[in-house]
Every structure is written in C-alpha cells, then in structure tokens.
Design a protein that fits this description.
Layout: H1 2-12, H2 22-36, E1 45-46, H3 48-55, H4 59-71, E2 75-78, E3 82-85, H5 90-114, H6 117-136, H7 139-157, H8 160-200, H9 204-227
Antiparallel strand pairs: 1-3, 2-3
Helix pairs in contact: 2-4, 3-4, 5-7, 5-8, 5-9, 6-7, 6-8, 7-8, 8-9
Length: 228
C-alpha cells in the first residue's frame, strides 16, 4: 500500500510538457544564423524592436530568443545596457578547438576504417567545390563547402552520436572560422585532400594525425588573424 501511495505521489509531480511554439523556435534559429553567418558582428548592440521588425515578428519571441541565446553563449545581456553579440575570448576558442580536435581525430579514424571508394569520391567532390570557391575569392561559398566536408566526414565515419556532437561543435566552429577562413582557404583544401588520401588508404593512424594537424593549423590561423 505504501508503495502505491509513493508511486501516486511521484506521478502527481509530473506535469504535461509545454510545447514550444514553432515561431519561437524559428526566431531563435534565425538569430543564431545571423550570428554564425557574421551578419551580426561580435560586440554589436541588439535592439529588440529592430530585430522584431527585421524578422517580421513581435518583440516577445525576440526577447525569449535573446535569453536563450545568452544561456548558450551567443549573446550577452548587460544590465541597463541591453543585448550584445558575444565576443569570443581566446580561451573560449581554444577550448572549442580542443573539443573539435578530439572529435575530428576519432571521426577521421572511423572513416578510414569504413570508407569505400564511393565515400572517398564524395568527400573529394566537396573538397573540389571548396577549391573552386577559394579560386573565385568567394569566402562564403568556401565556408559552406568546408562545413559540408566535415559533416560528410562524420557521416562516413558511421557513428550517429559522434556525428551529433560534431554538428553541435561545428555550428559554433563555423562562427569562429569566419575570421580564419581568408587565411586558411587554399591550405585547408590541400589538408582535406591529404586527409581523404589517408581515409581512402584505410590508414587510421595517418587519418587521425592529418585531422589533428588540420585543426591545429586552424588554431594558429585564427590567433594570427585576431592578433593582426
């Protein structure tokens, strides 16, 4: 009887899940993309009324999105000043790159274990798109191709959990990478091709090493850009 009463008490504590309005999520996603794409710059003041007007919504979903963005590190809410796009510190970038490096090394290793000729060809095709963008001087297309390459690499690795974690890190990485992209373009594509060669050869150690070096060179390029 006591067990039944305890179970009933625990059940009473459970409440129906409050489903988020699709508009709320859409506003949040739009604002994240504005930050990641560089259309909202680090340190930029965010005015609720202006954002609401530009997004075609009321201020309420914008205000809710700003609080969520603050919790996730995209935005800073300052008392009596308002909202500002977060300015990443060198330490934050290094910590993200540390995580990125670990994920990419394991992704590359697993990809080398399981990739077939078709998978390698798919990775090379994306890489060549990036090379074409670099030659055309189109940084935006290059960044998109770079993101697609790493997403495709995670898919080839065949580990869904690893791919999900890589996507989370990759989204923020795309934000930071914008600064380093002009400096990294041509060499980054060459490094991707070296990584693909290791994967196609089934060489797990060489693939992991190539992935680590690739991330470390991005780290150097990022800090060099910030310092200059």
């Amino acid at each position: 009887m006591a067990v039944d009463m305890q179970s009933a008490g625990e059940a009473d504590l459970i409440r129906p899940v409050q489903r988020a309005a699709p508009l709320r999520q859409a506003v949040y996603e739009s604002m994240v993309e504005l930050v990641v794409s560089g259309r909202l710059n680090p340190g930029e003041h965010l005015v609720e009324t202006d954002l609401a007007r530009q997004l075609g919504v009321s201020r309420q979903p914008v205000r809710e999105a700003l609080h969520r963005l603050q919790a996730e590190g995209w935005v800073d809410l300052r008392p009596n000043q308002g909202a500002f796009v977060h300015e990443p510190t060198d330490n934050e970038v290094d910590q993200l790159l540390d995580a990125r490096e670990l994920l990419e090394m394991e992704t590359a290793r697993l990809a080398a274990r399981s990739a077939d000729a078709e998978a390698a060809a798919r990775l090379r095709a994306i890489c060549h798109e990036g090379e074409a963008a670099v030659k055309a001087g189109d940084t935006e297309v290059f960044i998109t191709a770079n993101n697609r390459f790493h997403a495709a690499l995670a898919e080839v690795a065949g580990n869904a959990v690893l791919a999900e974690l890589s996507a989370i890190v990759g989204r923020r990485m795309r934000w930071y990478y914008r600064l380093a992209a002009p400096l990294r373009g041509e060499t980054s594509c060459a490094e991707h091709l070296e990584l693909i060669d290791a994967i196609a050869a089934g060489d797990e150690k060489r693939a992991a090493k190539a992935a680590r070096q690739h991330t470390e060179r991005t780290r150097v390029a990022y800090h060099r850009t910030v310092q200059s």
